[in-house]
């Protein structure tokens, strides 16, 4: 019942106006931003590159939430080579919120292959209206063994019928996302499998440390069941695109996997479906290193 109420609230929050088409919004904008960020890391190093592309409110998890500017301003330049490639990307119809995800490699010693680390990253980007450029809002990732096969590309254009006029608050209506995320967290304490079955998008992806990304509700729920995962989580913050089609949330989680209990940070990417219900398109858990 609570799920239905939230869906109705989401529907009522839509602007009751004729949606204008915005042909300038293209998913390639966030892909290009991500690739430019990667090239900047190669030229200037990890620290300077992060400081150059971050949104004023951009965050990382080191190990808890901290502003990107605060963290990277307080450390020395990081050695090594960091490379990544976007394979999964979406952008909102208004172009003010986007994300990419994909594989990364980190090599501390550029002359040796022995210390290479593999994993997947997730980056959320927010449009800076002042210069019309996407800035890095959230960045985190997981480590896992080297992938056995090449990941397929999944870039999808936004539904421009959801485009609305300019808004003074690009994350207006974030209360709906906050309520949805908290509801999902409450349901997780009762049954992880039932919660994911209810809230996952048909295209849902699941990123868990030590494992390659899992795609599709059936595979995700099979993984949760096989690994004996139970979750308690708490929402910290959320945001939503002004076109009401893409959103994010993040928070903390305590996960019991078999007999082992560990602390994690999570980020969820939400998308709205044709029935105006918010579904989880991507969820990533990043282990809290003590």
Care to describe what's here?
- It is built from seven helices and 14 strands.
- The protein has 290 residues and is an alpha+beta fold.
- It has two domains: 139 residues, Nuclear Transport Factor 2, Chain: A (Roll), CATH 3.10.450.50; 135 residues, Nuclear Transport Factor 2, Chain: A (Roll).
- The strands form two sheets. Strands 1, 2, 3, 4, 5, 6, 7 and 8 form an eight-stranded mixed beta sheet that branches.
- Strand 13 and strand 14 form a beta hairpin.
- Helix 1 runs antiparallel to helix 5, helix 2 runs antiparallel to helix 3 and helix 6 runs antiparallel to helix 7.
- The termini are far apart.
Distance between the termini: 39 Å
Alpha plus pi helix count: 7
The SSE string, one letter per element, is HHHEEHEEEEEEHHEEHEEEE
In CATH terms, what is the fold-level topology of the largest domain? Answer: Nuclear Transport Factor 2, Chain: A
Tell me, what's the shape?
globular
Could you estimate the helical fraction of the residues in percent? 25-40%
What is the element layout, followed by pairings?
Blueprint: H1 2-12, H2 28-44, H3 46-53, E1 54-61, E2 65-67, H4 68-73, E3 81-84, E4 88-91, E5 97-107, E6 116-128, E7 133-143, E8 154-155, H5 174-188, H6 192-199, E9 200-207, E10 214-215, H7 217-226, E11 229-240, E12 246-257, E13 260-272, E14 278-287
Parallel strand pairs: 1-7, 4-8, 9-14
Antiparallel strand pairs: 1-2, 3-5, 4-5, 5-6, 6-7, 9-10, 11-12, 12-13, 13-14
């Amino acid at each position: 019942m609570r799920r239905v109420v939230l869906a109705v609230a989401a529907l009522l929050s839509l602007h009751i106006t004729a949606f204008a088409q915005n042909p300038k919004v293209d998913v390639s904008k966030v892909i290009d931003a991500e690739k430019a960020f990667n090239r900047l890391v190669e030229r200037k190093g990890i620290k300077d590159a992060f400081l150059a592309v971050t949104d004023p409110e951009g965050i990382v998890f080191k190990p808890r939430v901290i502003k990107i500017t605060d963290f990277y301003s307080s450390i020395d330049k990081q050695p090594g080579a960091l490379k990544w490639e976007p394979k999964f990307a979406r952008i909102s119809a208004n172009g003010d919120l986007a994300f990419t995800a994909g594989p990364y490699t980190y090599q501390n010693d550029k002359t040796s292959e022995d210390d290479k680390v593999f994993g997947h990253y997730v980056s959320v980007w927010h449009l800076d209206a002042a210069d019309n450029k996407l800035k890095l809002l959230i960045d985190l990732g997981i480590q896992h063994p080297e992938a056995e096969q090449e990941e397929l590309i999944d870039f999808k254009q936004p539904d421009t019928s959801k485009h609305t006029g300019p808004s003074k608050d690009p994350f207006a209506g974030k209360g709906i996302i906050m309520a949805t995320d908290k509801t999902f967290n409450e349901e997780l304490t009762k049954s992880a499998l039932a919660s994911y079955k209810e809230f996952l998008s048909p295209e849902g992806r699941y990123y868990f440390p030590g494992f390659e990304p899992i795609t599709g509700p059936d595979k995700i729920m099979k993984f949760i069941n096989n690994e004996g995962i139970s979750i308690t989580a708490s929402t910290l913050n959320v945001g939503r695109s002004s076109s009401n089609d893409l959103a994010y949330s993040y928070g903390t989680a305590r996960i019991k996997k078999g007999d082992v209990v560990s602390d994690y940070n999570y980020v969820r990417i939400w998308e709205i479906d044709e029935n105006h219900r918010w579904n989880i398109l991507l969820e990533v858990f990043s282990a809290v290193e003590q």
